[in-house]
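Standup notes
- DV: blocked on the single-chain target, sequence here:
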Amino acid sequence: MGDDIRWVKTHCARMDHGGCGLLVGVKDNEIVKVKGDPDGFLNKGYICPKGVASPDRLTHPDRLKYPLKRVGKRGEGKWERISWEEALQYTAENLNKIKEEYGAKGVAFGVGMPKGLEHFVLIRLANLFGSPNVIASQDVCHAPREITGIHTCGFYPVADLHHQSKLVILWASNITSTNEEGEICSLLQEQLEKGTKLVVIDPRKIDMVSKSKKWLQLRPGSDHALALGFLNVIIGESLYDKDFVEKWTYGFGDLAEHVKQYTPEKVSGITWVPADLIRETARLYATSKPAVIQWGNPIEHNIHTFDITRALICLMAITGNLDIAGGNLAARDPKIMGLGAFVRADLIPDKRKEMISTYYRVIPRLMTIAPTFFKKAVLKGVPYPMKGFYAMCANPMLSYADSRQTYEAFMNLDFMAVADLFMTPTAAMADIVLPVASQFEVNDIGHYGIGHGFILARPKVVNPPEECWPDIKIINELGKLISPSELWKDDYEEFLEDIVRPAGLTYSQFVEKGYLKGPDRFKLYEEKGFRTPTGKVELKLSTAEKFRLKPLPEFSGLPEDDDQEYPLILSSSKSRYYLHSSYRWVEKLRKMRPHPKVEIHPETAGKCGINEGDEVIIETRNGKITQIANLTDTVHPGIINASHGWWFPEESPESQYGWEKSNLNMLTSVEKIGEEFATPNLKGIGCRISRKQQIQHL
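- DV (later): unblocked, structure below
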């Protein structure tokens, strides 16, 4: 390209968890080219379609450019333009009014998948305002793995793809499609080229099946049964790491006795995986060291996520694959500001007692509120009234289970403000809509607080439109109006300086480095033990009675019982071209995936009279939607795999952009939730399908 192009190094964000190092070409405050950075810590030059299309977010003609205030009834889609000063004052007045009448806990602060530092600045805002209620998607994302890990072994066991493993198990991790939490597929591809063996455990025939030694096509929602079957084989055949088990585990004898009931034959009937394949895979994992389980978000999509995660950590432990290079490790942060200090947790000492979820006695250490409990507080006043909601980086109308109930909850709020890049079904329900500056337009830090042992520099590349503010700036200025102003910054970018100051760096010096990584220190338990009450990996939880948790992982059933009226099993997957419900309006991405497609096995489609490209009605006991048939042997004949996160930005705000038509969460319910995390069933749900009858016009 021409010499007048300026190249900037940064990291991708808001198209996924982010993490890929990027080289961004800029000319006249416009991004003209994006490519993968060959020196990228996580990606080594790899870039996905979302990353290539990412600049198009900034220049879309329908992008929000100034604050809006609702002038019609809620949901009518009628707005007037207002100034930032008026928008902030109006928001502050309403939040303060609710606080005066109902207390600070009557206001909730909502966030979607963590995107950057703004996630933690929002928690700071909630803490300083005095509200213990931050509503997040952690019930179905990240927390079951992280917090179950803390209870079981004292840390969140992260897959180490930076060191060579003899075997990698992709367990519900479609790593070439969704590079979850910085686990970028290029690192795995490099390992496979060097001889690492691969096992895929997934209901779908994902791309990596072609490179795997074994593929276990399990029934959705039966992961805990399969993991318990592996434990049965490894312990029964004495393939476990005897030295590690003897010195560093608690409750092995109880676990060994407990898993005798989960024979491969019994587990095969539950999971649909042949018994011999269960035995072979368990043996392969136990005899390949180091071996790593790269576990994906889908294991957190049903009411049994605690049992699933516990069983998988037990597997990592008894094979001696915890906290070793090439295994599942305890990632150690670099010298940066701690989370508690950053969010000023000290200023809300009674948070654990005041949170909505305390009423439901969820698992200790879960510090965000599950959407199910938030909606119950809005609609029923349980355990106390919830009247106000400030949301950013989120589209709950699509992402919360039971979208119809979410709509009703929003209709019953006294006040709702949403900060976003684009008008969404959720923003269309708000009283105030605030236009944000997106990635490339704001200095930021990535991966802070995620527990992977590193942070990434995301320097600003271009200037945003004049009235589009970074989320951190919005929160900082709102914070001055609803909490002690002296606890906020004159310049919001001082938050960035705070994070890296303990490392002896300024933010600009951090940008020069590109990333900060904690030290590689393996087997630290040999010096200090595990950070659990027993100092060991708790295969049997010593705190089970105290916290009302199951002492051992178990299989108590599938997410839902078989239902003759709804004989197929509904699953779902994220698209490689979108981030949850985001970016259906980016033309380059929409062309690659223009419609919500439902994957149906040809045999099943034939029985239902469905052809490729037909509109299909998908129905569960909770509702029905329409998606487009894609006939493929990627799925089992007994499963249909629907698309997640669909709405239609080409429609109108009056209809909330067709949020009901193809939205997967019209099919889900919150009637059954897991006790530990309040996780609803998003997969493994009984369903039926039919061809949509077209109306013929004479």
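- Follow-up: The CA atoms of residues 660 and 666 lie 7 Å apart.
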